[in-house]
Amino acid sequence: LYNTPYMDSLREKYFENILHENNCTVDSSDKDLIKAICNYLKNNSAPGHSYIEDEYGAYTGNDTNWSMLPNMSNDYVSVMVGGIGACSSYAELIGKYVSYLQENSFSETIKQVQMYGTGHTWNAIGLDTGTENELWYYTDALNGSYMIGYENSILSSNSSMFSYDSSIPKNDDGTYTVTLSDGSIVNLQGKDMSLDFNDTEGLCGDANDNGNVDVDDASVVLSYYAQKAAGLDVEGKEEFKNISNGDVDKNNEISVDDASFILSYYAKNAAGLNPTWDSILNSKTE
Q1: Are 114 and 122 in contact (CB under 8 A)?
Q2: Rounded to two decimals, what is the model's pTM?
Q3: CA atoms of 44 and 264, how far apart (whole Å)
Q4: 139 φ, ψ to 5°?
Q5: How far, in Å, CA of 85 to CA of 94, rounded?
Q6: What is the three-state SS of the chain?
Q7: Predicted confidence (pLDDT) at residue 227 exceeds the cutoff of 90
């Protein structure tokens, strides 16, 4: 069915569903449009390989019980249909998505190109290209690290990351220079120049800055709140350096409510409910 009208239709419906779930329209920003698919992939797919199986069971080859189908695993269809795939399938799917946005008038300023590191495929994503706000970001959908700079702390603190191309030159300002497929040269944003899902300062709820929102973040928030309430000096402590990410209700105060919101977000996300912070915060007033 590959490269057939059926698959083309399936791909369009797949992207339509992602945009609808995230309330995206032609008026949405480039950032929100990219956030939509990255959030969806994070919650609905996983790294892996596709295998051959028919009505007689698993195909046996190479003295194994399963025979990998490499072309499928490295194609965007593997992630789109099966929710599983290798790095190149994720990168290709991002490319198809950006093309869809361009062709359907969602954005004329979002651009992408597949890049290749050391045994790994990823994308460089340009937001608001051609404007004074143009920024290019490294995007690795397979590893769940989306709109981040090339040497962002999320990468350096995540031991499961692959090795990236060390030949890409680093500039004095912390950016990395890459040449795109059309020959143009752009600078990927450098260390600490993150563009995460919920704001431009850091991942909302990620109080310990490990790239995820989980129970540990709630613990950091509660610890900060308790120590401050006890009159202890919490400013400047290494464990609280990213505590501002824990202020999920944006009232400029770290409280027990913030910890509660984080736990609720984590629980709903773990249950596959794809929560948004707006839905979590609004549930308190309902």
Answers
A1: yes
A2: 0.59
A3: 19
A4: -135, 115
A5: 13
A6: CCCCHHHHHHHHHHHHHHHHHCCCCCCCCHHHHHHHHHHHHHHHCEECCCECEECCEECCECCECCCECHHHHCCHHHHHHHCEECHHHHHHHHHHHHHHHHHCCCCCCCEEEEEECCCCEEEEEEECCCCCCCEEEEEECCCCEEEECCCCHHHHCCCCCCCCCCCCCECCCCCEEEECCCCCEEEECCCCCCCCCCCCCCCCCCCCCCCCCCHHHHHHHHHHHHHHHCCCCCCCCHHHCCHHHHCCCCCCCCCHHHHHHHHHHHHHHHCCCCCCHHHHHHHCCC
A7: yes
Which position has the token pair 């709903």?
268
Instruction: With beta carbons less than 8 A apart as the criterion, state whether 207 and 262 touch.
Output: yes
Q: Is the pLDDT of residue 213 over 90?
A: no
Check if the beta carbon of residue 206 is closer than 8 Å to that of residue 245.
yes
Pick from 85, 92, 88, 94: nearest CA to 36:
94
Placement of tokens 């913030």 in the chain:
258
Q: Which two tokens stand for residue 15?
A: 């992207």
Please report, rounded to a whole number, the percentage of residues in the chain having pLDDT higher than 70.
Answer: 71
Minimal CA–CA distance to 77: which of 91, 95, 89? 89
pLDDT of 76 strictly over 80 = yes
Residue where the block lists tokens 């769940």:
144
Degrees, nearest 5: CA angle 168-173-177: 25
> What whole-number distance in Å separates Cα of residue 197 and Cα of residue 245?
12
213 vs 207: CA distance, rounded Å: 8
Predicted confidence at residue 284, as pLDDT, reads 64
Q: How far apart are CA 278 and CA 260, in angstroms?
A: 14
Within its chain, how far is the Cα of 7 from the centroid?
Answer: 25
Task: Please compute, for residue 246, the number of CA atoms within 13 A of its CA located in the half-sphere on the CB side.
Answer: 30
pLDDT digits (tens, 9 = 90+) for 170-210: 777 767 777 776 777 877 765 433 444 333 345 678 888 77
